[in-house]
Design a protein that fits this description.
heterodimer; A: 220 residues; alpha/beta; Glutaconate Coenzyme A-transferase; 10-stranded mixed sheet; 3-stranded mixed sheet; globular; B: 236 residues; 9-stranded mixed sheet; 3-stranded antiparallel sheet; 7 helices; 12 strands; 23% helix; 28% strand
Chain lengths: 220, 236
């Protein structure tokens, strides 16, 4: 299995993963980005596309990080980081915000993952360990309500364990919800036949990805 | 004549009783009514059930209320913060109960509570451990989980401006849960940065209509939780 040193030199780095996922965000989309690497996608949406970012704590039209001195503790994203609002933004309360999610109005959501199964089950909220403090936030609402769920994640854990598996051992966030997975090694679609590799990172071959995956992959 | 204004935060929270369910507005520090929470700590009511998205940070505001041992149960979606172990420690020692609710289900349960809807069905959490023991019903070929409405005895909220009738305006993402909590509580108590005569807020822009607001206290310069935490403040 791969180790940390190998991960740094092989496949896409985190910025490139975000860049690759950004290519699949179409013009005019209303998009919710999860905390962590998914947040980086906003920087890489190709020029000429207009995308509106939703943050579930009550803003459509999330802008970039404020300049020093312009931070406002009343203007934060779902990760409680200080942000800005673009001209044309809208604020609303939590029930309206989750009405956008649960009512199917948000087009795309990109989330991180602890595990994804070959049928598109997602686990990303709890290890299920006895002493863990369970915390779910809006993850279950997003996967239940948003039609297109993309996952952006390292292919393996820091310990080199596969994150793409036959069935998730961690508690589920949702069943059969993931449409596409972007990792440091490949872009993979969840299909009725299983996980299909649709693109490989430069210098990576199918066998290399298969060896680091806990279920059978289908070549492109 | 309608008079909802209270002179002090202490007066406004004086009748919160032992065992009460209290909704507290805010998402992290954005919208957190710190002065009202501190008044509740001073007031001494115990065995409270508190509804908030989180469990506070540092040793001020909601975290201080939990640390004081007055909270028997938290109903929230995300009881973890980078800079607080108050809830974590008490929870691991079995001193505080946790009802974990997905954030959208939490919001909708509060909305339903304020709208006279006793329960509803949602796709959220279907097939997960958070749906265990709950009624599942199939509509048009898909499973949905039944969730009950949430109501409260009191709501403690913060807003930017309130007029004499209790019409409210909020500030940016500090709005979050406050407008729905205002509808779901028997007694809604609001601390406001500005107190205005009736008529000073354009009716087209009112966010929370005054019918949902019972008590208003002027707190012109509310403290910021993150600044207090950065200073290492401990309340009381």
């Amino acid at each position: 299995m791969n180790n940390a040193a190998e991960r740094a030199t092989v496949g896409w780095d985190r910025e490139q993963m975000a860049q690759r996922a950004a290519l699949d965000i179409p013009d005019g989309a209303y998009v919710n980005l999860g905390i962590g690497i998914p947040e980086k996608i906003a920087r890489y949406v190709p020029d000429g596309r207009e995308v509106i970012y939703h943050t579930e704590n009550g803003l459509l039209g999330m802008g970039p990080t404020p300049k020093p001195g312009e931070e406002d503790p009343d203007l934060v994203n779902a990760g409680k980081k200080q942000i800005t609002a673009i001209p044309g933004a809208a604020f609303f309360h939590h029930a309206d915000s989750f009405g956008m999610i649960r009512g199917g109005h948000i087009d795309i959501c990109v989330l991180g993952a602890m595990q994804v199964s070959e049928t598109g089950d997602l686990a990303n909220w709890s290890t299920g360990a006895a002493d863990a403090i369970p915390a779910v936030g809006g993850a279950m609402d997003l996967v239940a309500g948003v039609e297109t769920i993309y996952v952006l994640t390292q292919h393996c854990t820091k310990e080199g364990e596969p994150k793409l598996v036959r069935s998730c051992s961690f508690p589920l966030t949702g069943q059969a919800v993931v449409k596409r997975i972007y990792t440091d090694l490949a872009v993979i679609d969840v299909t009725p036949q299983g996980l299909r590799v649709i693109e490989l990172a430069p210098g990576i071959d199918f066998e290399y990805v298969q060896q680091r995956t806990g279920c059978n992959l289908i070549p492109a | 004549m309608i008079e909802k204004k209270f002179e002090t935060v202490a007066d406004a929270v004086s009748d919160i009783f032992d065992g009460a369910t209290v909704m507290i507005g805010g998402f992290g520090e954005a919208g957190s009514p710190i002065e009202l929470i501190h008044a509740l700590i001073d007031q001494g009511a115990k065995n409270l059930t508190v509804v908030n998205n989180n469990t506070g940070s540092g040793h001020v505001g909601l975290a201080a209320l939990i640390e004081s041992g007055r909270v028997a149960k938290m109903i929230c979606s995300f009881p973890r913060t980078a800079n607080s172990t108050v809830f974590t420690d008490l929870y691991r020692r079995g001193k505080v109960e946790l009802e974990l609710v997905p954030q959208g289900t939490l919001a909708e349960r509060i909305r339903a509570g304020g709208a006279g809807i006793p329960a509803f069905y949602t796709r959220t959490a279907v097939g997960t451990t958070l749906a265990e023991g709950k009624e599942v019903r199939n509509f048009e070929g898909r499973d949905y989980v039944m969730e009950y409405a949430l109501k409260a005895d009191f709501a403690l909220l913060k807003c930017r401006s309130a007029d004499r009738y209790g019409n409210l305006l909020f500030n940016k993402t500090a709005r979050n849960f406050s407008p729905i909590m205002a509808t779901a509580a028997k007694t809604t108590i609001v601390q406001t940065g500005k107190y205005l005569p009736a008529g000073d807020i354009d009716p087209e822009t009112v966010v929370t209509p005054g019918i949902f607001v019972h008590r208003i206290v002027l707190v012109p310069e509310p403290q910021h939780e993150s600044r207090l935490v950065a200073q290492g403040s401990v309340y009381p």
